[in-house]
Amino acid sequence: MDYSVVAVAREDDSAIDEPLRVAAVADRLGYREVWAGEGPTWDSFVLATAIGRATERVALTAGPVAVSVRDAFGIARGAASVAALVGRPVGVALGTSSVRVVEGVHGVPRVRPAAAMEASAAAVRGFLHGEPGEPVAPGSTFRRRLPPPGGPLTVAAFGDRAIATAAAHADRMLLDIVSPDQVRMLRGKLDAAADRVGRTPTLAAWLPVAVDPDPASLAQVLRSIAGYLTVPGYSDMFEAAGFGEAVELARSGADPDTLLRALPAAAAGTVGLVGDQDAIRARAEEYAEAGLDEIALVPATAGDPGGERTLTALRPA
User: Fold this and answer.
1) Is residue 93 left, alpha or beta, with left meaning phi > 0 and alpha meaning psi from -120 to 50?
2) Is-contact 79 62, C-beta < 8 A?
3) Distances from the Cα of 298 to the Cαs of 19, 166, 221, 252, in angstroms?
4) Which of 221, 273, 307 is nearest to 24 (CA)?
5) Residue ranges of the Luciferase-like domain (predicted)?
6) Which has the closest alpha carbon to 132: 145, 141, 142?
7) Which residues 6+ apart lie within 8 Å of 124 measured at CB?
8) Are 4 and 294 in contact (CB under 8 A)?
9) Under the phi-then-psi rule, with left for phi > 0, alpha for psi from -120 to 50, and beta for the rest, what region is 166?
10) Is residue 153 pLDDT above 80, yes or no?
């Protein structure tokens, strides 16, 4: 199993510079790659540049960035700009994001997201492989000056059409907060789609993780899960796992604190890696057996600044 680390701002009262701290720990411990996540707080390309300037060797992936609010050329230019400034490979991840972010934050209609993803992935892939001296876009009189960023193209996918897009255009498909059973099902869909187009993208998942969590760490993981209780494809899984009460509360519009009280500690281990080091290694093996190639660790930082304890326990050999 390959491990990478996610440095993303939590939209709560955590420190604004928490992603930089997580990335610095990951770099020092020898992790191969850090994801600079995007959200209402941080622009992913700015964050990736800051991380690159503050670290020595870790490769970077910016995103997922929302395809409804960024054009394909701008996405590829952002990755190439970061790579030029930090002097190491930079990849880019694409996602459709949510109505709450696309419309509620950016004020842009989230229309036909699967079609937007398909068009963006195809275009971004072309832009990522252009060489200096070529036109920046077909028919443009401007010439490329920056070399390609050198990192992978990742597509975040869950639905069938997005999976087909990942199979056709991405180097890697990304899942977010999934169980091993979901991985197994989605891996099968990815392999089938990839076989049809003669490609073999890898499969990664962002998973919340906390080694020997204290109550604050556990609560932080549970809060990250609560937002998925009503998402199609997730609600059934949580109900089957015995968390139906929390699902119903979420559907009724309960506030985050109410949902947190309704979720038992066991819920954290349904779609995450929580427990002692041996338990987490065993759970990671379940994900590997289900077909996952890479776990992108989203370390709890409440009670574990920078995710130091967790990332140290799981650092590469």
Assistant:
1) beta
2) yes
3) 10, 22, 9, 28
4) 307
5) 12-293
6) 145
7) 72, 75, 76, 92, 94, 153, 169
8) yes
9) alpha
10) yes
Spatial CB neighbours of 227, under 8 Å, sequence gap ≥ 6: none
Q: What average pLDDT does the segment 14-43 reach?
A: 96
Q: Is the pLDDT of residue 232 over 90?
A: no
Q: Give the model's confidence band at 316: pLDDT under 50 very low, under 70 low, under 90 confident, else very high.
A: very high
- Does residue 155 surpass a pLDDT of 90? yes
pLDDT in tens, 179-230: 999 999 999 999 999 999 999 999 999 999 999 999 999 999 998 888 888 8
Looking at the whole model, is its pTM more than 0.90? yes
Nearest to 178 by CA among 189, 169, 192: 189
Domains of the chain by start residue, with CATH: 2-210+271-313 (3.20.20.30)
Amino acid sitting at position 165: T
Encode pLDDT of 264-302 as tens digits.
Answer: 888 888 889 999 999 999 999 999 999 999 999 999 999
| CA distance readout (Å), 17 to 23, 41, 56, 257, 280 | 10, 10, 18, 24, 27
Other CB atoms within a 10 A radius of the CB of residue 62 amount to: 29
**Cα 316 from chain centroid?**
20
Residue 98 confidence (pLDDT): 85
Tokens for 17?
Answer: 């510079």
- Per the structure block, which two tokens stand in for 234? 């997730």
